[in-house]
Structure formats: structure tokens, C-alpha cells
Amino acid sequence: MNKQIIGDMGQAAAEKYLCAKNYSIVARNFRSRYGEIDLIAHDGSYVVFVEVKLRKNITYGHPREAVGHTKQRRIYNTACHYIATQNLTDCDFRFDVVEILTEKGMLKVIHIENAFN
Fold this sequence. Notes:
The chain is of the alpha+beta class. It has one domain (3-112): Trna Endonuclease, Chain: A, domain 1. The protein has two helices and five strands, in the order αβββαββ. The protein has helices at 3-20, 69-85, and strands at 24-32, 35-43, 46-55, 92-103, 106-112. The chain has a five-stranded mixed beta sheet. Helix 2 (69-85) links the parallel strand 3 and strand 4. The chain is globular. The termini are far apart.
């Protein structure tokens, strides 16, 4: 499988997981000149910007560890662009990471709310 198919599979699993937690997905793969956000969702009064990371194992660390300072800054700038273009100036927002590990053909989903703090 190529990276795009694997990435799509991880994103679909994250979306299914979030929908089961009553999140409402409002955008997928939002792109701007600053970067890309995998999923944008509503969770109650929050607009949630979600980064999805999938790994086969933790040999090189947990998937969440791939969301370092530079990646966070790109996501933050992209989120600011989204907020401005959608006129969401009076909203609460946060940044979540959904990490997915494949274990023996199964997907293990770990949701880290407010991951950038």
C-alpha cells in the first residue's frame, strides 16, 4: 500500500472514532498556503483542529511525537487562516492529535485533546 492509501485509512479511522464521540466533522484536508489540517470538527462549542498520525509500531516513537514544534506552528497558522476565512472570530478552539497504531491487523486509536498545551 502506498502512503496516501495508508494515510486515508488512518484519517477515516480517526473520523469514525470522533463521530462516535459526537464530534461533527466540518472539513477534511483543509489546505492553505501555511499548511494542511487533517480534520476540522465541532465538539460542543469548540472548533477542533485535528492532526492524525498513523504508525505500524513505536520503534521510532509514538505517532504523537511526530507533531513537533514546527508542525504545531504550521497547523496553528493554518487554523488562524481557517478561522479568518470562515469568520469564526468569536469561537473557542483547540488542537487535538489522534494517533493510530496498527497492532496485528487492528487499529488502536488514542485521542489526545488539547495536545498543543
